[in-house]
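Input/output pair, single chain:
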Amino acid sequence: MSTPERTPGAQLGWDGGAVARAGAFAARAARVLRLARVALGFAYFGVGIWFLGAVLLPLVALPARLRGLPPDAVTRRAQRVVHHFFRSFIAYMEHVARIAEFEWGDVEALSRGPVLVVANHPSLIDTPLLGSRLPQADFLVGPEWMRNGWMRRAIRAAGYLSAQDGAEVVRLAAERLRAGRTVVVYPEGSRSPAEGLRRFQRGAAHIALEAGCDILPVTLHVTPRALMKDQPWTSYPSENAVWRVEVGEPIRTPAGGGSEGRALAARHLTGVLEEYFDKRWERGRS
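Output:
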């Protein structure tokens, strides 16, 4: 009579419960290690942006100020330094921490400035993502980031614009576009909610109309959803999130004369933008 074949676990005296417990422990350990890599990514960005604002950007600006260069030249230098930091952060996330992947579609169009870039805002790292491809960029920054003591000095040193300044920020952004600079606007005003896009604000349209320039739409996708609004970093997905950057054809800005004509044109252009991003975000939604 042949002896029943025994599994390796049985030969070692393991029962099914022990095997399951070992598997669960290995899964928890892998999850902890992954979250540790995510935490290191946050630390890399946090310490880096603090160092930029507290030390590096003031040092970069000092020679330009001593030479009497205009503020435009000072902030351009600062933004180039920020661009290199953003590039290093994106490279760290993909190649060192290995917790993210990035796909780039026709991003060369981003460097053919000056241009008004309008993008949706699905995740926490959208600004470094776009900034890594823009050697010079004036971002419109939400008030919560302007109040953040850890980041405020870097934001100010880079010359970014406060989105809460209303008509004044429209005027300043248009001036910078006319001066040959690139401006980046998130018309949602904050990160997208889980169910889709926020209702677009009209700031981007007013800037385009004031500057008399076209809009370069950039659709950002992330699959699976990661670092979204109100999503804790500890819920970062177990598989690598993939960010995809999709640069579209420029959207023409209609002419709008007078205050009433400008208001109607801004409303219409905002509707065009909402329709554009609704279609593409649906296509890329996880």
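The mean pLDDT is 88. The chain has one domain: 16-284.
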